[in-house]
From TrEMBL:
Domain N-acetyltransferase: 9-175
InterPro entries membership: Acyl_CoA_acyltransferase, GNAT_dom, NAT_camello-type
Keyword Transferase attached: yes
Gene3D superfamilies with a match to the protein in the record: 3.40.630.30
Keyword field: Transferase
Keyword hit for Transferase: yes
Molecular function as annotated in GO: N-acetyltransferase activity
Protein name: N-acetyltransferase domain-containing protein
Superkingdom, taxonomy of origin: Eukaryota
């Protein structure tokens, strides 16, 4: 991807034919963090098992992909859900008067060869505009603390680190 040609990227709605490319983008975008593949299988079997049902058919939720018009390749993605679906634990801890004003940023990933070219910024801007248009006042996200590049990206756009929760890995939940 050319560093000067962000215009060759379009942001569009997820389509069912995008699923395998979306899975590959998540795997490629997280490869440097050396995750166990079982982690990805778990998310592929959860909300990504039916993106239409879990995002596109849910009020105030959505999924976008970034597509290179040079080769029609998906080079990034991002999704949003109401907080009650995206992070039920945080939802329960949030004051009841704020809960439904917060959405959860989900499944943000940019292909390694497309990082540092504005793709992530365009995806995030798309999500933030959607959030405003749908009455959300805050965007929440969860990422791992050792994902330094991701944390720096979000902080650059005004996200603030909140509570750090530690969850034990339950091997019975990972297949």
């Amino acid at each position: 991807m050319s560093t000067s040609d962000i215009s060759s990227i379009i942001i569009r709605s997820y389509q069912p034919s995008d699923l395998s490319a979306c899975k590959a983008t998540i795997l490629d975008g997280h490869r440097e963090y050396d995750y166990d593949l079982r982690f990805f299988n778990q998310i592929f079997q959860a909300d990504m098992a039916d993106i239409e049902k879990n995002y596109l058919q849910v009020p105030n939720a959505y999924w976008w992909v970034a597509v290179s018009t040079d080769d029609n390749r998906i080079v990034g993605q991002v999704a949003v859900q109401p907080l009650r679906l995206g992070d039920p634990i945080y939802y329960e801890r949030t004051p009841s008067e704020e809960r439904d004003e917060i959405c959860e940023l989900r499944r943000m990933s940019v292909a390694p060869d497309s990082q540092k070219h504005g793709v992530g910024s365009r995806l995030l801007t798309t999500l933030l505009n959607f959030a405003r248009e749908h009455g959300y006042r805050k965007v929440h996200l969860t990422t791992l603390t050792h994902m330094n590049k991701a944390c720096a990206f979000y902080e650059k756009y005004g996200f603030v680190k909140g509570d750090i929760d530690r969850f034990p890995i339950d091997e019975s939940n990972i297949e």
